[in-house]
Amino acid sequence: MAVAGRLSLATRNASLATPSTATSSKITTQIEVIPCKICGDKSSGVHYGVITCEGCKGFFRRSQLPTVSYSCSRQSNCTIDRSSRNRCQHCRLQKCLAQGMSRDAVKFGRMSKRQRDSLIAEVERHRQQQQQQQLQVDAQSGLAYHTKEREDCSPQLLQPMTPAYCSGESELLSFTSDVHPYLLCTPNQPQVSDMIYRSSGVSPSSRAHMRGDTSGHSEIRDELCDSIVRSNKDTCQYRAEELQALKWKVFSREEMQAYQSKSVDEMWQHCAVRLTDAVQYVVEFAKHIPGFRLLSQNDQIALLKTGSMEVVLVRMSRVFNAENNTVFFDGKFAGTEVFKSLACGDLIAAVFDFAHSVCALKLTDQQVALFSALVLINADRPCLEDRGKVLCVQRSVELGLTHILHRDNRDSLMHKLYQRMSVLRSLCSLHTEKLRWFSQRYPLTAHCLFPPLYKELFASEAELMLLPGATH
Ligand code: HC3
Q: Which residue segments constitute the domains of the chain, with CATH numbers given?
């Protein structure tokens, strides 16, 4: 797997939602020349990751309320334009999702250099189109036209646009400059006690040293556990109270039928967007696991590529109601029937069984957090550059998990958690298999309509990029 070659991360600092540089603010002031990607009305900027008008922005915001659910009374293929946009909320929402709108785009919507250049090119292309139209009008009305600006146009800027979902740059990691406590260690020192905190001037270990006591080790371990638990809580996607309040809110028969009458590719696209949202939270979780950021970027990516789907599946147990076998999906609790049109019943059944089996372990939030960290930081994953360093972080997480299980009088859980880990591996292989089947059958959807992050995570395994000219 050519991780280093394909995934360049260095330039991923500009935020699409909150542009901070001069270039970004220049782009935002000019974005309005591009019509709303949903209905074609006049746009007002980038909202939820896509250029839209105020109307579609508000519509998308309202559509994300947990109580909202739309269905189409026709064939789910209504035309959405300025005049028809209010006729079918279902198809309008589908178009928003297909264009890549996501409520998480505000939080995670970082713009890569490629995307920024692409946007500048699109702004320029539209500006020129408008100018061209004006020139034609002027010519017809006999007006002279020669502007310096026209002569200066770079041919580069006139190149065809790459659709947002067809860009080839890494979506996996966006590096922010926020400082979090992190651990530093070398491959030859794989113990928590050998790690050095670099977050503040004086580390817990040196504080302990100065006091001459041995409690420093446990202090470090406790800080590591706290950090992972906090990170898990901050990135868990849904608040416990929210889930509790909606626990018995299941999809109605009509709503379920609306999902079931979606075409296979439509449902795949829908689920791919939902899955990608969940993965983005996992990526944020990973970035705050002490020690993760000290790994090379390629190793961080390699761990996320193999582990993020597994963590999504672990997290599924938190949003799973084992009493009626439903999962929180699109604002309500959904049974396996909701996913029928994906046409992969065996995968869905296996994933639901897994969630059930994790629920049966009755893990605390702390145990789930440490277990998730251990699923991610695994030195046995393929393509790691510095396996020793990964092992070092893995050991520290293992020690943390062992400690909290011991403290909670649940030592015997460790063995069961390792068993669950091997089930996770087979679930992901099955998922990859399904994706391979789907991308052979619907190459266009897989190539152009799946979120870039989804493709980046699963592409190499499932050969999603089957189209000629696709970036490998
Ligand atoms: C059902 C789901 C896996 C679980 C995902 C969960 C429930 C996980 C916990 C998050 O907090 C919320 C969440 C959102 C999306 C859920 C996924 C949607 C589809 C996926 C199935 C396993 C199908 C795989 C979809 C495919 C084939 C397109 O990749």
A: 26-141 (3.30.50.10), 189-464 (1.10.565.10)
